[in-house]
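Task: sequence design from structure.
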């Protein structure tokens, strides 16, 4: 029987970690045009627009759309409405469209924030209440990477939609959308500078009482031209997982460096969304026009067919859709990666199905992803020779 392993997204009410983290709560993007990016998430990814924030709900300087899955995934897409909406406009000017913050739901915001500070976290927003007639939400935030935040949030005393400032969507005629079966956030990945991976892994481990789960060292993920190092830190109950990549010295510009150049800093590279049926999900996403990275060659699937690891999916379907498969212990991982969701080669989504208890990240899939991104990097003319890897910025 397939175990339904899900980390985060569906918060358990009684956490089993010292920070009182129930699970992922939401991810918020800052983008140039929230209306269009929200439409893409609804029509292409098959999410529901369930709440809206803007002038109609009394908020005059920004507009946000809340997109959700029936399983509790929350994605917020936000744009500035005024030239002096500084926090959003400065982010967009520097980075383009990207993830501004990811939030975890905690039992006690002040307690989690104070513990994070004791662990060395940089405070950005002190614990505070946001109120309206439906009650209040508590929030606080600490720094992550160059311009990103980790938010602690609690909605226990709020009866309204999401949080104060949000109301029902403006569009009162529901448009057709195709169900894709996306469930919850599985993990969130960051890209950082050379020599920053250890710093940020230790920062998160100390601030959130996480642990290092996996380390890919020199030579583990590389091609003839470029390489990376990666550490996965996670909460001790495994609900929140946060891989961190840094470029590693190589002949040409690492794809992590390409991200840092194009994003103009360090930040979130991708978010993995889980599904219980990746063949149906990826089929629906492709029908909806979602672009994926190139599929691996036929030999990749021939090799898989020779291995006996209890694959229950049809291998021809996996090949037809370009889905990667990696065996891990007694389980296996099915993964596929979209092309960047915006025009800059920065943020992208991953679709993941964990089968038979697989908990890791699949070194083989990671390597295949790395090679696939590198092919696209080459098409963009960014797989350039570097004279001095230290001067990549
Ligand atoms: Fe991933």
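Answer:
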């Amino acid at each position: 029987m397939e175990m339904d392993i899900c980390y985060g997204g569906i918060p358990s009410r009684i956490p089993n970690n010292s920070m009182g983290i129930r699970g992922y709560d939401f991810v918020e993007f800052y983008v140039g045009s929230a209306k269009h990016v929200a439409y893409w998430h609804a029509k292409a990814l098959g999410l529901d627009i369930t709440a809206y924030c803007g002038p109609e709900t009394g908020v005059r300087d920004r507009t946000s759309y809340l997109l959700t899955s029936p399983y509790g995934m929350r994605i917020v897409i936000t744009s500035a409405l005024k030239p002096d909406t500084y926090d959003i406009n400065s982010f967009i000017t520097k980075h383009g469209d990207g993830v501004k913050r990811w939030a975890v739901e905690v039992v006690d915001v002040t307690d989690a924030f104070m513990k994070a500070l004791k662990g060395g976290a940089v405070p950005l927003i002190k614990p505070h209440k946001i109120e309206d007639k439906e009650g209040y939400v508590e929030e606080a935030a600490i720094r992550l990477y160059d311009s990103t935040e980790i938010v602690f949030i609690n909605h226990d005393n709020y009866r309204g939609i999401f949080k104060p400032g949000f109301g029902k969507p403006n569009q009162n005629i529901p448009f057709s959308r195709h169900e894709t079966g996306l469930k919850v956030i599985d993990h969130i990945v960051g890209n950082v500078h050379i020599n920053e991976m250890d710093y940020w892994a230790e920062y998160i481990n100390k601030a959130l009482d996480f642990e290092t789960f996996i380390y890919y060292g020199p030579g583990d993920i590389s091609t003839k031209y470029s390489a990376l190092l990666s550490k996965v830190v996670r909460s001790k109950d495994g609900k929140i997982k946060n891989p961190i990549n840094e470029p590693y010295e190589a002949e040409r510009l690492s794809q992590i460096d390409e991200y840092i150049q194009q994003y103009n800093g360090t930040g979130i590279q991708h978010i993995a969304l889980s599904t219980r049926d990746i063949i149906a999900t990826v089929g629906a996403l492709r029908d909806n026009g979602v672009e994926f990275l190139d599929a691996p060659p036929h030999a990749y699937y021939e090799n898989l067919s020779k291995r006996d690891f209890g694959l229950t999916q049809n291998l021809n379907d996996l090949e037809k859709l370009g889905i990667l498969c990696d065996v891990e212990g007694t389980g296996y991982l099915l993964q596929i990666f979209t092309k960047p969701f915006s025009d800059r080669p920065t943020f992208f989504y991953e679709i993941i199905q964990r089968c038979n208890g697989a908990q890791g990240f699949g070194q083989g899939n990671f390597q295949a992803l790395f090679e696939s991104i590198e092919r696209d990097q080459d098409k963009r003319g960014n797989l350039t020779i570097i004279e001095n890897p230290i001067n990549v910025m």
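Residues 97 and 342 are 7 Å apart (CA to CA).
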